[in-house]
C-alpha cells in the first residue's frame, strides 16, 4: 500500500538507500511484527541527505497482539535497521508523538515504507 505524502506532492521520493533495502526491511517487518513503518525527514525527502553523515528517521507502529516483548520489538528493530542501513537510525513509535509541532514536522515528509 502506497500513501501519498507531502514529499510525493512536491515530486520528491524516498532516498534510494531505503528503496534498495526494501526486501530486507520487509523481512525485519515480519520478524518484529510491524504493522506500519514510515520514513521521515531527509531520508524520506531524498534531499539534504548526506550519505556520510545523515541518520534515517523512522516512525513505527507495532502489531497490538504479539509474542515478542515490547522492548525486544523496539530495540531489536532499531538495532537491525542501523546494521542494515549502515548508519544511525532514529526510531519513533507513532503513538508516542504528542507534540503537535513535532507531528506537523513529521507529517511534512513522511513516506510509507510498509503498511498492513
Structure description:
By secondary structure, the protein is an alpha+beta fold. It has one domain: Beta Polymerase, domain 2. Helices cover 41% and strands 21% of the residues. The protein is built from 6 helices and 4 strands. It has helices at residues 6-9, 16-20, 22-31, 42-45, 70-85, 100-107, and strands at residues 34-40, 56-62, 89-93, 111-115. The chain has a 4-stranded mixed beta sheet. α3 (22-31) packs antiparallel against α5 (70-85). The longest helix is centred in the C-terminal third of the chain and has 16 residues, at 70-85. It is globular and about 40 Å long. Residues 1-12 have low confidence and may be disordered.
Layout of strands and helices, then pairs:
Blueprint: H1 6-9, H2 16-20, H3 22-31, E1 34-40, H4 42-45, E2 56-62, H5 70-85, E3 89-93, H6 100-107, E4 111-115
Parallel strand pairs: 2-3
Antiparallel strand pairs: 1-2, 1-4
Helix pairs in contact: 3-5
